[in-house]
């Protein structure tokens, strides 16, 4: 489902200009990028390369135990932009040996495998042990990763073209009344049912020009202007508006632009 253009707003939220004459502009405290010297870098004297499109960066070769999200997190880059540049439709389908271009990177970095990966090499005898380094993805344009908004919900309709029209989000099926959680800390900039077809809908504005949308709710539990915390229950799953069966329609927007939520979520189910 696509939100009408007249419902889009400024101030980095990208929604509801027609509904509100004033939208809070404060985007919250930015998460700063980890200094380059603090990262775990693989030895490399290779200079940054350029793609045919002239974008500067480096190529990263996927190794066992590395996930798309962990790669983006290590380099401190936006996963949506990496997916766009590399034309990756599904972040879960990257494979060992695949080369991924990292825009803006200046050298190849070592990406730690996900926790519990059985193929991770054992530390050398006598070597000090320390937990894998973690670096926050800067809030330009998103932090990583967003929380899956319906804990027991299952993905049943993806982002992209559907029946000849653009589906700007994903649909997560769950029993009516199931909890819908805030994907991250944010401010409620809309809570109502005035957007045709969306039924009861909530829009949260987060730091970094990021917004999330939760629609077809049975009941909204938060009000405009309210600050919410990551994981807070904000609504209940329903089928209000143009909906078939109980589910949550979830969108991620960077400014006015809808992006694939699966590149920003902690996990897809």
Structure description:
It is a single chain. By secondary structure, the chain is mainly beta. Among the domains are: 38-103, Membrane-bound Lytic Murein Transglycosylase D, Chain A (Roll), CATH 3.10.350; 145-263, Glucose Permease (Domain IIA) (Distorted Sandwich). The chain has 2 helices and 16 strands. Strands 4, 7, 9, 10, 11, 13, 15 and 16 form an 8-stranded antiparallel sheet that branches. The relative contact order is 0.20. Mean pLDDT is 74; it is low at 4-47 and 127-143.
How are the SSEs ordered, and which strands pair?
Layout: E1 49-50, E2 56-61, H1 68-75, H2 79-86, E3 99-103, E4 154-157, E5 160-162, E6 165-167, E7 170-173, E8 179-181, E9 186-192, E10 200-206, E11 210-217, E12 219-220, E13 227-228, E14 233-236, E15 247-254, E16 257-259
Antiparallel strand pairs: 1-2, 2-3, 4-7, 5-6, 7-15, 8-14, 9-10, 9-13, 10-11, 11-15, 12-14, 15-16
CATH superfamily of the domain at 145-263: Glucose Permease (Domain IIA)
Order of helices and strands: EEHHEEEEEEEEEEEEEE
From the coordinates shown, what is the CATH architecture of the domain at 145-263?
A: Distorted Sandwich
Overall pLDDT confidence = 74
Number of strands: 16
Helix content: under 10%
What CATH calls the topology of the domain at 145-263 is: Glucose Permease (Domain IIA)
How many angstroms separate the termini?
Answer: 21 Å
What's this entry about, in short?
The protein has 269 residues and is mostly beta strands. Helices cover 6% and strands 26% of the residues. The chain starts with 48 loop residues before the first strand and ends in a 10-residue tail after the last strand.
């Amino acid at each position: 489902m696509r939100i009408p253009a007249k419902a889009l707003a400024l101030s980095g939220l990208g929604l509801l200009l027609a509904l509100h004459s004033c939208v809070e502009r404060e985007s919250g405290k930015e998460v700063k990028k980890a200094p380059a010297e603090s990262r775990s870098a693989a030895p490399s004297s290779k200079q940054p390369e350029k793609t045919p499109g002239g974008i500067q960066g480096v190529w990263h070769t996927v190794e066992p135990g590395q996930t798309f999200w962990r790669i983006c997190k290590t380099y401190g880059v936006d996963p949506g932009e990496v997916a766009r540049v590399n034309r990756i439709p599904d972040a879960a389908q990257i494979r060992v040996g695949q080369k991924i271009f990292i825009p803006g990177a200046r050298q190849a970095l070592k990406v730690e495998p996900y926790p519990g990966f059985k193929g991770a090499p054992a530390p050398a005898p006598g070597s000090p042990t320390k937990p894998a380094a973690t670096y926050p993805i800067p809030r330009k344009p998103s932090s990583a990763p967003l929380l899956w908004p319906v804990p027991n919900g299952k993905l049943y309709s993806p982002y992209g073209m559907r029946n000849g029209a653009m589906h700007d989000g994903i649909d997560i099926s769950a029993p009516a009344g199931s909890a819908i959680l805030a994907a991250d800390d944010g401010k409620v900039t809309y809570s109502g049912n005035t957007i045709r077809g969306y039924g009861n809908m909530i829009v949260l504005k987060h730091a970094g020009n990021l917004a999330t949308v939760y629609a077809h709710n049975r009941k909204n539990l938060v009000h405009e202007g309210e600050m919410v915390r990551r994981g807070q229950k904000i609504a209940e799953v329903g089928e209000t508006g143009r909906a078939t069966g109980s589910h949550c329609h979830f969108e991620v927007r960077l400014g006015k632009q809808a992006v694939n939520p699966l590149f920003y979520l902690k996990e897809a189910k």
